[in-house]
């Protein structure tokens, strides 16, 4: 039981987007019946908790079986349960399994399991609210806490749907309009969920979301806005038909960009000001037990800010270019108000700084975050800090710590790679972006006249939560766009003179053959992600 309690504590603290396990109910399950669904839920919890061993101390954690063993056992149990009458434990286990599989790059499995969780949850909710349920034996439990657990789990389905389908071309299954139409009750705040209240506490319209304890609901709404921004980007952003028309420019009220940005700011203002970073620090919220949720709320705000503003900035600035809109077709068909691009740059690169500071402060406070979403935030911030380090005038010289934050971001991703395979593609994307931007700043004519269309694979990779290794495409496009390539003998000798190594991302490259060396000196300590076989299926849980 001690291991179960420790795993529950770590899971609840480190994954704010999946705070769905009510402690009393969870513990009771393993003190009494121990159903097969309960065992599957425990297995998924142990699988994802085991991934935290690089940042959580304790011999008990390292003494657990491999994460893959627990995940395999869980799915072998859930495969039968998904076609049985719906149970909330099955939904919870599928959601946790979804997050685990996303982190280990099993994207299709994650997508399918998230869809299963949503369908089972919809069936469960329908059987409760329908005046004429198809199966009267289902969902007869009227206990207020059971209803609260189901409600919170439904919102977790919503969050996971936003998370794994944002930054991909997959459609969402559970939009906010559906949640509102079905009148899914608002999730209880942390305190009420932990202790439990009567059914009157489940009124959908009661209360507000400004308090510190209402973080889960705020996170759910934040992910909805983030998903809207990512949908805008992945539907071709400013390059979509009509998006460069005067009435669709980002500063125009009523434009898609403006509407999303307005929702983001309204969401921010709906929170208590004590939830705003950097006005208030991570350490204060850590002492209150809300540290991770505080970080998530602010990462959501700053990441969405980045996605909105970055869409309009040049992918490859020219020379000493200062903040401005697109330089590649299609161009905006109206002029921005005076100072608009300067303010946009301030918000864009300021958001990247704040994400880096958030994660850095979390590590210093002893509550480091190593979740797939925090990794994506770190990757996005690292890329932008690289960008403004190489092109400082794009933020008018205001990003004075860009190199320092960029290097810290790389260190974070290196450590992140010890927990989640997801980091491998992000690291390579940063590496190849560094190669491009270093060459572009050392020789301004090298890529003159090139646009983001010439680096389409690299541009795609900087947006991807579901990262795919496109290193070969990155390097081929970088080489093809290089105007100096044609000056080399027979077009085959792409080597460059060996130069002196410097520190950090500013390091120069060694000579290479056939294609530019993707591994500069500063990168020599990083290795390819290796997927090694793990042990056989652990069957010990069957005897629990």
Automatic annotation (TrEMBL):
State the Gene Ontology terms under molecular function: DNA binding; DNA-binding transcription factor activity, RNA polymerase II-specific; zinc ion binding
Principal cellular location given in the protein's record:
nucleus
Xylanolytic transcriptional activator regulatory domain: from which residue to which, for each copy?
A: 110-193
Query: What are the start and end residues of every segment in region (Disordered)?
Result: 481-502
Report keywords, A-Z: Membrane, Metal-binding, Nucleus, Transcription, Transcription regulation, Transmembrane, Transmembrane helix
Q: What GO CC terms are in its UniProt record?
A: nucleus
Membrane-traversing stretches: 369-389
Q: Would the keyword Transcription regulation be found if you checked this record's keyword annotation?
A: yes
GO annotations under biological process?
A: DNA-templated transcription
> Matching InterPro entries, A to Z?
TF_fung, XnlR_reg_dom
Annotated localization: Nucleus
Q: Does the keyword Transmembrane helix apply?
A: yes
Compositionally biased tracts (Basic and acidic residues): 481-491
Q: What Pfam families does its record include?
A: Fungal_trans (PF04082)
Q: Which PANTHER family match?
A: ZN(II)2CYS6 TRANSCRIPTION FACTOR (EUROFUNG), ZN(II)2CYS6 TRANSCRIPTION FACTOR (EUROFUNG)-RELATED
The protein, known as: Transcriptional regulatory
